[in-house]
Amino acid sequence: MTETPGSSPAAPADGAQSAQKPLRVLIGADTFAPDVNGAARFAERLAAGLVARGHEVHIMAPAASRKHGSWEEVHEGQKMMAHRLYSWRWYPHDWLRFALPWRIRQNSARVLDLVKPDVVHFQSHIIVGRGLTIEAEKRGIRIVGTNHFMPENLLEFTLLPKAWQEWAIGLAWKAAKRTFGRAESVTTPTAKAAQFLEQYTGLENVHAISCGIDAHEYTPNFEPRTGNTVLFVGRVTGEKQIDVLLKAISQLPPELDTKLHIVGGGDQMRNLQHLAESLGLADRVVFRGYVTEEELRAEYTAATVFAMPSIAELQSIATMEAMASGLPIVAANAMALPHLVADGHNGFLFEPSNPAALAAKLRAVLEMAPDELTAMKQESLDRIVVHDIQRTISTFESLYRGEPVTDPVTNVASAASAED
């Protein structure tokens, strides 16, 4: 018998699921590996985790180059079939490619008729998700949708005048409502993000399901620190507010001898390099750019504290990875970050866009007594447990089968803070 790519056998997470027939899942995404961002990383990890459990997984996403078509790809060590769509480069962005909107329904129909999936799980409503939901609905295929999108994340790349941006945001949410409205189940990474999506689209009963990570892949370091290193990981773009972080570093006492490592790439790299020079930080800031997974994990292990100044996080996989590495977190008190950071427990929250406030919180961590820092590091490890990727995969398996689910409790940070 010929084995289908993406259907290598593996033991499911529990006995109840092992008795059920493996699923054929089509994951549709506007961004997928080798793209580096939270949505792409989640889709890749989910796909690989499903394959490891014995399911057959297909990916439909824009081609990463001019080469397009269907072929086998390996992600996270697992084989799956990828259907890469002819794509164009969007030049205002430093790497983004997009499938052609006017061909998406034709392409969706072609892939659906070829794959004949049990379920379609789309990761974005913008292009691929729109086409897949229209055509899957016609064919009576179960649809699950996950939202990783905030209009503000794309506005800086649209070239729209400021005066038109509020109008464009309204159109984006109306489009989201139409596409997600075709789904049997809608999910997003946190309760805050679910409330946000319901508020702006009118959708109801949106599930909050963590993107999840495999915490065992990361290595905490409890050795006495020999220096002070602040780490940021993420796209080097405007909404991440890395300029706020650079200004905060410049306000730290010189005797702390604080270094800042910025891991990731993006359109703001040159501007931030110039800002670092103007602030007198050229010898204290390292712009690592894109790194390998092994190098990234090493950065987490070596850091003293992780900083996330972004104001547009629907969850923040990078922050979860830092927690799994046993790092204290200093994060903006915005969007979903308070779901991960319990102020004073595994880190601190600061007033968004305020360099002085961020500097004060970073200083509090960097000047902590060793036993206090150890306790904060351990708290991060304790709090990441509920974001285990295997639990996320199990929840999506139930949604794929049309089974009722109870949203996993992941808002432990806010819950714990309320009890104090």
Overview features:
420 residues; alpha/beta; Rossmann fold; 2 domains; 15 helices; disordered N terminus; D-inositol 3-phosphate glycosyltransferase
Describe this protein's structure.
Pfam families: Glyco_transf_4, Glycos_transf_1. Keywords: Glycosyltransferase, Transferase. The chain has 420 residues and is an alpha/beta fold. It folds into two domains: 194 residues, Glycogen Phosphorylase B (Rossmann fold); 171 residues, Rossmann fold (3-Layer(aba) Sandwich), CATH 3.40.50. 38% of the residues lie in helices and 18% in strands. The chain is built from 15 helices and 16 strands. The strands form three sheets. An eight-stranded mixed beta sheet has the order 3-4-2-1-7-8-9-10. Strands 13-12-11-14-15-16 form a six-stranded parallel beta sheet, sandwiched between helices. Strand 5 and strand 6 form a beta hairpin. The longest helix is centred in the middle third of the chain and has 19 residues. The termini are far apart. The N terminus and C terminus are likely disordered.
